[in-house]
Give the backbone structure.
Amino acid sequence: MCAFWDTDKAKEKSLTASVARMSDRNGLGPHKHNSGQKSFKQIEQELVEELGRPVTLSEVFIKTHTKKDGTFVDMKAQEVAEVYRRNKQSRLEDLKAENADPSESSSQAPELSIDEDNEIFLLSTFTDKRGKHYGIGSLKSTLVNGKRKYSASSSILDLQKQLDEAHRKIEEQAAQNAIALRKIEEQAAQNANNLRIIEEQAAHNAEQGAQLKELSVMNKFMTATNPQYVEFVAANKSGD
């Protein structure tokens, strides 16, 4: 690799690229970004992991073209950001007007999808003679006919969100099942207590029935063997 860059052809290519980067570009100054050795795809993935959601091209652009103090790395980046901001604001105002409900005093602020936001950014940034968009680095490879194609990182994140949502619903259902089971157990305990009371009452009734039977047998015996008992019973009945 070192030998290659020592060749006249490599040096000429490097010089041409350097001149292009440092050219005045119609007063916009040299082309800069602060991604360092990281590709724009790597930076996009880091943003996805940091924010926990898919990110737009504009967010990657801002991340790679602003300094720590919040200012842009060059005039061209600033111009793109300002054009993007105006175009996005215009689109949001159009959506708000389209969705306005005269019957409501206030309406929810409209939001753009990631695809819509990306489309606005691509229309706001510069393109070179070959139609390549400025400010998105290696993310150029994710464009098909001027639109972003399938993003693995976004899809994985969406899948993770779906899994998290499914897990949350499972936990909610498990909690509801636990409550229902507790109520069933409480009802079963109440039923067992009621059954115990019924059994105790049945035993008491059986005991009383046995006592009544004994009294009936004794009454028959006394009636058959003791005239005085018969007279006593008759006298008490007439007294009642």
User: Anything to note?
Assistant: The two ends are 130 Å apart (CA to CA). The mean pLDDT is 81. Residues 29 and 75 are 6 Å apart (CA to CA).
